[in-house]
Each structure stands twice: as C-alpha cells, then as structure tokens.
C-alpha cells in the first residue's frame, strides 16, 4: 500500500516534470532555432502548443462538471430513500 | 486577506509585463501570445509536481500504529472487565 502510493507519487512528479521540460523547449527555445534545424522534426507545429492545452482544459472542466453532477444526483437519490 | 492582495498584485504585474511585450513587440507577436498559455501549463505542472512529492514523502509512523493498537486492546480488556459490551474484533 505504502509502496504503491510512493510509486504513484513518483510517476506524477516524473510526468509533470517531463511535460514542463518538453513544453518549455517547445514554446521558449524553439522560436530561436532555425526552421530547417533537425530538432524541429521532434515537435508539432506551433499552433498545437495552444490547441492541446485548451483542449485538455476543456476536457478537464467537462469531466469535473459531469463528476459533480453525478455525485449530486447520487446524494439526492440517497436522501430520498431514507 | 493579505494573501489575496499579494496574488492580485502578482497577476497585475504579470499582465502589465505581458501587455508591454505585446505593445513593444520586442519578440515576435505569435510568440508573445503563447506566454499566458505557457504560464498556465507551468502552473498546472507545479501543482501536479507538488501533489506527487507530497504523495511520495507522505509521513507515516508505523511504531505509533503498533502503540495505538496496543492501547485499543488494553481499553477493550479494561471495559470488558467492567462489564461493558464492546463487541469483538
């Protein structure tokens, strides 16, 4: 149990650090590199740097709304029963 | 209350710097537009990192758990001797 928590924590830290480093490279450093440099092959075009976070944010918000609604419906049904 | 003032001041300063960058166009425009998104993404990464580190370094004290179990057993026996029904574990 304790080990599983530690592994999950380590995975979360690693994922967040990876995303941060990749995004920093993509947004901050890449505009200063020439467009015909080989490193541009590893990154999507610049428009996706906005599209992906916005899409992820909208998906997260939708998920949260659905979850809150589900919990409220469930608690209402429980109250009716008692 | 003071915390919110600090956060508001920070936000205002960041937006002022950003608007200044937009107006003076020291760096290309399309690049300046990315900065707020970058800020939000880094904030999310920071939150995720803090959750991960907190989960990794969650303090546990196993010896205290053993002591607590011993206390519970003692209390059970004491109450049983006095004739109180505490159920079985």
From TrEMBL, chain A:
Q: Where in the cell is it found?
A: Endoplasmic reticulum membrane
Reply yes or no: does the keyword Transmembrane helix apply. Answer: yes
| Membrane-traversing stretches | 7-29, 49-73
Q: Does the keyword Transmembrane apply?
A: yes
Its keywords, alphabetically, are:
Endoplasmic reticulum, Membrane, Transmembrane, Transmembrane helix
Task: Extract one GO molecular function annotation from the record.
Answer: dolichyl-phosphate beta-D-mannosyltransferase activity
One of the Pfam families matching this protein, by short name: DPM2
- Any single Gene Ontology cellular-component annotation: dolichol-phosphate-mannose synthase complex
GO biological process annotation, one example: GPI anchor biosynthetic process
Taking the first listed entry, what is the main subcellular location of this protein, grouped into a coarse class?
Answer: endoplasmic reticulum
Q: In which pathway does it act?
A: Protein modification; protein glycosylation
What topology does the record note for this protein and the membrane? Multi-pass membrane protein
Q: InterPro entries per the record?
A: DPM2 (IPR009914)
Q: What does this protein do?
A: Regulatory subunit of the dolichol-phosphate mannose (DPM) synthase complex; essential for the ER localization.
Family assignment from sequence similarity: Belongs to the DPM2 family.
Q: How does it assemble?
A: Component of the dolichol-phosphate mannose (DPM) synthase complex.
Q: What is this protein called?
A: Dolichol phosphate-mannose biosynthesis regulatory protein
Source organism per entry reads Dioscorea cayennensis subsp. rotundata
The root-end lineage is: Eukaryota, Viridiplantae, Streptophyta, Embryophyta, Tracheophyta
From TrEMBL, chain B:
| Recorded metabolic or biological pathway in which this protein acts | Protein modification; protein glycosylation
The membrane-spanning stretches of this chain are 7-27, 33-58
Respond yes or no to whether keyword Membrane is given for this record: yes
Q: Which Pfam families match?
A: DPM3
Keywords (alphabetical) are:
Endoplasmic reticulum, Membrane, Transmembrane, Transmembrane helix
**What are the recorded Gene Ontology BP terms?**
GPI anchor biosynthetic process
Q: How does it sit in the membrane?
A: Multi-pass membrane protein
The UniProt entry's GO CC annotations, sorted and at most eight, read: dolichol-phosphate-mannose synthase complex; endoplasmic reticulum membrane
Compartments annotated for it: namely: Endoplasmic reticulum membrane
Taxonomic superkingdom: Eukaryota
| InterPro entries tied to this protein | DPM3
Family, per the entry? Answer: Belongs to the DPM3 family.
Function, please?
Stabilizer subunit of the dolichol-phosphate mannose (DPM) synthase complex; tethers catalytic subunit to the ER.
Q: How is the quaternary structure described?
A: Component of the dolichol-phosphate mannose (DPM) synthase complex.
Question: What is the protein name for this chain?
Answer: Dolichol-phosphate mannosyltransferase subunit 3
Species whose genome carries this gene: Dioscorea cayennensis subsp. rotundata
Q: What is the lineage of its organism?
A: Eukaryota, Viridiplantae, Streptophyta, Embryophyta, Tracheophyta
- Recorded name of the encoding gene: LOC120253441
């Amino acid at each position: 149990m304790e080990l599983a928590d530690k592994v999950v924590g380590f995975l979360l830290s690693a994922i967040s650090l990876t995303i941060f480093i990749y995004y920093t490279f993509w947004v901050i450093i890449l505009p200063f590199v020439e467009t015909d440099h080989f490193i541009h092959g590893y990154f999507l075009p610049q428009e996706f740097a906005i599209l992906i976070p916005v899409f992820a944010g909208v998906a997260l918000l939708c998920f949260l709304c659905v979850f809150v609604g589900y919990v409220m419906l469930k608690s209402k049904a429980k109250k009716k029963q008692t | 209350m003071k915390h919110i003032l600090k956060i508001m001041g920070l936000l205002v300063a960041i937006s002022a710097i950003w608007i200044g960058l937009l107006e003076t166009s020291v760096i290309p425009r399309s690049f300046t537009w990315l900065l707020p998104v970058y800020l939000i993404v880094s904030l999310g990464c920071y939150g995720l990192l803090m959750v991960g580190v907190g989960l990794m370094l969650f303090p546990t004290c196993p010896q205290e758990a053993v002591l607590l179990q011993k206390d519970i057993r003692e209390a059970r026996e004491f109450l049983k001797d006095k004739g109180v029904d505490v159920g079985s574990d």
